[in-house]
Design brief:
By secondary structure, the protein is mainly alpha-helical. Helix content is 73%, strand content 0%.
């Protein structure tokens, strides 16, 4: 089992992000911030607690998700010593994106299916629209929900290196899942602590920035209606927070992968493709 130091990964990630900021920041802004802003602008505005109606905007949102996945893998490559240009890193990430999508679907779909089956077995009440009636949610239903959430959390943590594994190693989706799961053996609690700390920090900053910027923008330019300057400014602020945390998270993830795979046979050096 490889050793893992979250503190060392943090120091290495800071150094790598600082050293390569002229390459990484444009990728973060163009392939993380911009897609996030586009999604915010095209998504229909609905009251809190309601889901936006289906429509053509969903295809745009899906395309932006693909762009963000490409950007994330490109950042991982740049942090972990990519021997080539930014364009070549983005090209490599684009070619590897289908593998990452298949890997994600391979483990998410069974979890969703099991969750749905459990909910059906415990006979949770639903409203007339087929949605879960949270007001009449049974004890068995809450237990089923908790078990599924814990299962999803466990799998997510064990598969945390999946993005760098797919970006760096030339393997298929199933092999990437097995590889990620094997790399994290014995390190679950450290990785869980890192994941929770970063998630809490992101929520605090995102909520604070959203509340402050939202109040100021609404006061100056009016409420954030669709395709207004108010919505654009709020989306930019939220996107900047998201892009910043994504770059930090991916920097850490790249260095965690580097530690876990250090000295293992079959781990390729990150280099430009011929």
């Amino acid at each position: 089992m490889s050793s893992l130091s979250i503190g060392k990964a943090w120091d290495e990630a800071k150094a790598a992000l600082q050293a390569n900021r002229k390459l990484i920041v444009p990728v973060g802004l163009g392939l993380v911030l911009l897609p996030a802003v586009v999604v915010s602008m095209v998504e229909p505005q609905v009251p809190p607690g309601q889901q936006p109606p289906a429509g053509p905007w969903m295809f745009i949102a899906l395309a932006m998700v693909f762009v963000m996945i490409i950007g994330q893998m490109a950042i991982v490559l740049l942090v972990n010593g990519w021997h080539g240009s930014v364009g070549e890193a983005i090209g490599r990430a684009t070619r590897r994106m289908p593998t990452l999508l298949l890997a994600l679907l391979t483990y998410l779909l069974p979890v969703i299916f099991v969750f749905s089956v459990i909910l059906a077995i415990v006979s949770i009440g639903t409203g007339g629209s087929g949605e879960v009636d949270w007001a009449n949610f049974s004890t068995a239903g809450w237990m089923a929900l908790l078990i599924c959430l814990l299962l999803l959390l466990y799998i997510t943590v064990r598969l945390m290196p999946l993005t760098p594994v797919v970006a760096i190693e030339q393997i298929g989706p199933i092999s990437a899942l097995k590889r990620s799961y094997a790399l994290t053996a014995g390190h679950f609690w450290r990785l869980l602590g890192f994941f929770l700390l970063l998630a809490i920090a992101f929520l605090i900053v995102a909520i604070t920035v959203g509340a402050v910027v939202g109040a100021l923008v609404t006061l100056v330019t009016g409420p954030p209606e669709p395709w207004t300057l108010s919505l654009l400014v709020i989306a930019l602020a939220a996107g900047l927070v998201q892009a910043g945390f994504v770059m930090v998270y991916l920097g850490m993830l790249a260095r965690i992968y580097s530690q876990l795979s250090a000295g293992q046979a079959g781990v390729p050096e990150v280099k430009r493709e011929a």
